[in-house]
Inverse folding.
């Protein structure tokens, strides 16, 4: 089993490999009570976690929330808080989030806000959750104004990325997670790009790809928890990606939207003279080989409006993470409209 240490004010470890969930009892040793937050499809995994904790002397109960992005609403959060109160959860207790990125986002937000902050152990069951949502301490819910605009920075006490959970993951969900992996390759780790070029499915070196992607995120988060510096580079591809998700009412998977965002950001960097034509084409070719979309048909005027209210915006400025060469991310603020229009033309159908 691999371990990646995440530094900062509240350091923790990410356990990666088969059977990682078995660490749950150890990391919560001595805890009086815990709630296990999960969606209905993961009732069996949540039940096993509850049993493990109860055997270890932790009074554990499950709290069921909707599946997917439907979990990330104020109404769902309010209902969970009521259950926390009924179960008598105190500040010295813990929340365990079992599921994909949406459930771990919600579980972290619940832990951050209950009793002004209780521990959260994240047990991601999707590739996207393992390499992105569960690591880094960003938590949040969605509103009609946008994705994750309500949230808190609340680092987990541990992350248990059990690769056994990926065996039954649908292919489309696995590919969605790979978008965040290849993003880490473009901004920081050329070995990720090499591995995915050799095997675009990501199935042959899954554990190594996860560990490398988590290390890229850990390096950024350890320096910059609150997204004011190098952590912002992890948003590569996300400005357009989040706009697509919102416009499609989250009917597009996160990784699918980010995949288009990566190609758009590369095209924008090409327009700005930061990437060569070959480097731009490398984005499109690799993302397409991985089975992810590289085009999106939508209303460009509306997309620009939505991007301006993204949580990564600063006042009236439109900001994009772009690359000044592969592996060298930077912020491009208020790019020329002609550059934006050309990049859009390259990804729109």
């Amino acid at each position: 089993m691999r371990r990646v240490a995440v530094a900062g004010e509240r350091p923790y470890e990410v356990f990666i490999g088969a059977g990682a969930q078995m660490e749950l009892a150890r990391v919560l040793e001595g805890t009086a009570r815990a709630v296990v937050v999960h969606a209905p499809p993961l009732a069996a995994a949540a039940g096993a976690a509850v049993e493990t904790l109860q055997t270890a002397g932790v009074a554990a109960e499950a709290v069921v929330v909707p599946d997917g992005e439907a979990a990330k609403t104020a109404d769902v959060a309010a209902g969970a808080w009521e259950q926390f109160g009924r179960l008598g959860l105190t500040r010295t207790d813990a929340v365990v989030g079992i599921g994909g990125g949406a459930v771990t986002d919600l579980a972290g937000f619940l832990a951050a806000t209950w009793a002004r902050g209780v521990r959260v152990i994240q047990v991601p069951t999707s590739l996207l959750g393992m390499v992105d949502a569960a690591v880094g301490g960003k938590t949040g819910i969605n509103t009609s104004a946008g994705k994750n605009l309500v949230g808190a920075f609340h680092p987990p006490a541990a992350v248990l990325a059990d690769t056994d959970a990926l065996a039954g993951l649908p292919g489309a969900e696995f590919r969605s997670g790979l978008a965040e992996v290849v993003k880490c390759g473009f901004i920081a780790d050329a070995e990720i790009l090499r591995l995915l070029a050799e095997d675009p499915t990501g199935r042959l070196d899954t554990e190594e790809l996860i560990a490398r992607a988590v290390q890229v995120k850990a390096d950024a988060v350890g320096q910059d928890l609150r997204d004011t510096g190098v952590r912002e580079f992890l948003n590569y591809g996300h400005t357009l990606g989040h706009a697509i998700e919102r416009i499609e009412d989250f009917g597009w998977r996160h990784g699918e939207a980010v995949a288009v965002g990566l190609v758009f950001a590369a095209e924008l960097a090409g327009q700005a003279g930061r990437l060569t034509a070959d480097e731009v084409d490398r984005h499109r070719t690799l993302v397409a080989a991985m089975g992810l979309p590289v085009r999106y048909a939508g209303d460009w005027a509306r997309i620009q409006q939505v991007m301006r209210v993204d949580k990564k915006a600063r006042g009236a400025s439109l900001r994009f993470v772009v690359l000044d060469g592969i592996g060298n991310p930077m912020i491009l603020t208020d790019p020329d409209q002609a550059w934006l229009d050309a990049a859009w033309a390259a990804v729109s159908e």
Summary: DSSP finds 13 helices and eleven strands in the chain. The two ends are 44 Å apart (CA to CA).
